[in-house]
Each structure stands twice: as structure tokens, then as C-alpha cells.
Specification:
The chain has 124 residues and is an all-alpha fold. It has six helices and no strands. It has one domain.
């Protein structure tokens, strides 16, 4: 298997795992939904989980990999406000939790770059 295929499948696995977690343990995700979004946080948790599962499936399939990876890059950018909210809300948590919340912020950039690379590696 080519390195580009392994990278794509690893990204798909990450998205599938996270997407599944939105349904199995939704409460932590509910807590980071920005308050400015209309409706109930649980709805947004389920929608974002479903999007992650759909992106995972699209990236896993070579035929839809390029487009799905581009969409994943957009998705990773779109969820950044949730990570900012988490970091702000967790300012008074114990140091390890606070550090984990802050560590999520710069991790978005590598995820976006990874998705873009998967898309570039799968040009027609």
C-alpha cells in the first residue's frame, strides 16, 4: 500500500473514531458547542458526528477521496470555534485539563494541512 493511501486511511480512521464518539459519549461535545449557534447543542453534536462519519467514508474510498479530503479541511477549520470555546471555558480547570484544551487549538492547523495533502495526493 502506498504511503498516500495509508495516510488517507489513517485520516479516515481518525474521523470515524471521533465521529463515533459524538454518538457514544455526546456530553463533552455538547459542552463545546458555541452558544451563538441556534438550537440545542446535542443536535450540533450529532450533526458534526454524522459529518465526520461521512467524511471518513468519503476519504476511505479512492473515488471520493480528493473531494472528501477538501471538505474535511473545511470541516476542521469550521470546528475551530468549538475548540476556542473549550479553551476559554476550561481556564479554571486543573492544569492537565487546561493544557489539553489549549493543545487542541494549534492541532487544527496540522489537521487542515493533512486533509489538504490527502486531497493533493489524490489528484486525477
Amino acid at each position: 500500500m502506498a504511503a498516500s493511501d495509508r495516510s488517507a486511511l489513517l485520516l479516515a480512521r481518525l474521523l470515524a473514531t471521533t465521529g463515533t464518539a459524538h454518538f457514544v459519549a455526546p456530553r463533552p461535545f455538547d459542552a463545546i458547542v458555541p452558544r451563538v449557534l441556534p438550537g440545542e447543542p446535542r443536535t450540533w453534536t450529532y450533526v458534526s458526528g454524522a459529518v465526520e462519519l461521512a467524511l471518513a467514508a468519503g476519504i476511505a474510498l479512492p473515488r471520493t477521496r480528493r473531494a472528501s479530503a477538501l471538505l474535511a479541511a473545511g470541516f476542521f477549520t469550521a470546528v475551530l470555534p468549538a475548540n476556542v470555546k473549550m479553551a476559554r471555558d476550561w481556564h479554571d480547570r486543573p492544569a492537565p485539563l487546561r493544557k489539553a484544551a489549549y493543545a487542541r487549538l494549534p492541532l487544527q492547523a496540522p489537521l487542515v494541512l493533512w486533509a489538504l495533502k490527502v486531497s493533493r495526493d489524490n489528484r486525477p
